[in-house]
Task: inverse folding
């Protein structure tokens, strides 16, 4: 009997049968156990991989071990979310960056024979991080999604028995955690350079108002880029869209723009969502984008092409971030076996994506 015939007989896909026959991760342990029992009942044990044919099947042994310990049967990577209540609204953003990161983590974890599990600091307040990892079982490393960062969080993660990689983390605290980050310096420099070549000399900035480490880092890099190109940093040209408002609400910006008197000829935004809000506010104020004011986003999310004009932005890849987090964990595991505790930081490239929201400074062709 061929594998595809066995799959049809058992009512599953050929891919699922392949995972069972070759003892590979990717399906639930309950399903694996059930299929192994049915394969044995059909007298098809000869189709199993050699290791599975020797005595009790490894898949069944793993299930038995899981039942005894309450843990996962294969090696796992834990995706751990730290958050505070004031971040929950941003987590509901339909264009959230981190869904792409998870996609990248899952893809790379699969290639390295890891399962992916999610843990959440806000949902199990009575259980410590260590207890959650113990219950998960066989966790090889942790990817930390810290919506906030402080000494307590760093100390807790540093005290775990497995290596941790922090995602998009910027901190000046005592311990610099291994991290995979976006090159905000490169991204902001390319944004300002693009506008500078179009003749813009008065360039402003729009933030959400939520002062996360990432957002503070982007603002710092923007100011640094202005200085690098000899441009004046005017605090009056910094606007706040309002993090407490709806995700795409632009009423606060509209009022600020109307009260400003004169506006910069270009605005760089903290992220694409703020750029969307800026364009809507400028249009409602009777201004043309980019004819009167050029607007730049950051992140290159799907929202960039849901508005006219489409948003010129800085691209970074959330999928690449997820993949690099897994690869860094692999490296940390290897170095841990050598008795090393390195500080590693990987910065993702940030490239310019030209669309329609930027153009020459008004009065120039």
Result:
């Amino acid at each position: 009997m061929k594998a595809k015939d066995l799959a049809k007989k058992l009512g599953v896909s050929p891919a699922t049968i392949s995972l069972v026959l070759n003892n590979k991760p990717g399906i639930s342990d309950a399903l694996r156990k059930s299929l192994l029992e049915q394969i044995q009942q059909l007298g098809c044990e000869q189709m199993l991989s050699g290791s599975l044919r020797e005595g009790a099947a490894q898949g069944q042994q793993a299930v038995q071990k899981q039942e005894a310990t309450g843990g996962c049967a294969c090696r796992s990577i834990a995706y751990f979310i730290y958050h505070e209540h004031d971040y929950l609204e941003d987590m509901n953003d339909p264009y959230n960056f981190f869904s792409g990161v998870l996609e990248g983590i899952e893809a790379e974890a699969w290639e390295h024979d890891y399962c992916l599990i999610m843990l959440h600091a806000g949902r199990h307040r009575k259980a410590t991080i260590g207890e959650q990892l113990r219950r998960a079982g066989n966790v090889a490393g942790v990817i930390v999604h810290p919506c906030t960062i402080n000494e307590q969080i760093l100390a807790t993660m540093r005290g775990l028995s497995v290596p941790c990689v922090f995602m998009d983390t910027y901190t000046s605290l005592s311990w610099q955690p291994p991290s995979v980050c976006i090159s905000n310096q490169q991204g902001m420099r390319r944004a300002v350079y693009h506008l500078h070549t179009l003749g813009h000399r008065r360039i402003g900035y729009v933030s959400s108002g939520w002062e996360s480490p990432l957002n503070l880092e982007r603002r710092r890099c923007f100011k640094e880029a202005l200085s690098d190109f000899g441009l004046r940093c005017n605090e009056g040209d910094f606007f706040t869209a309002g993090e407490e408002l709806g995700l795409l609400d632009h009423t606060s910006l509209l009022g600020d723009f109307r009260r400003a008197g004169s506006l910069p000829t270009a605005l760089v935004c903290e992220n694409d969502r703020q750029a969307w809000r800026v364009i809507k506010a400028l249009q409602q104020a009777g201004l043309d984008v980019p004819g009167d004011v050029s607007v730049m986003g950051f992140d290159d999310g799907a929202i960039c092409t849901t508005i006219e004009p489409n948003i010129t932005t800085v691209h970074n890849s959330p999928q690449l971030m997820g993949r690099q987090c897994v690869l860094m964990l692999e490296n940390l595991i290897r170095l841990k076996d050598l008795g090393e505790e390195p500080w590693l930081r990987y910065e993702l490239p940030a490239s310019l994506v030209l669309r329609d929201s930027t153009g020459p400074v008004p009065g120039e062709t």
Summary: The two ends are 72 Å apart (CA to CA). The CA atoms of residues 99 and 122 lie 19 Å apart. The longest strand covers residues 139-146. The chain has 14 helices and twelve strands.
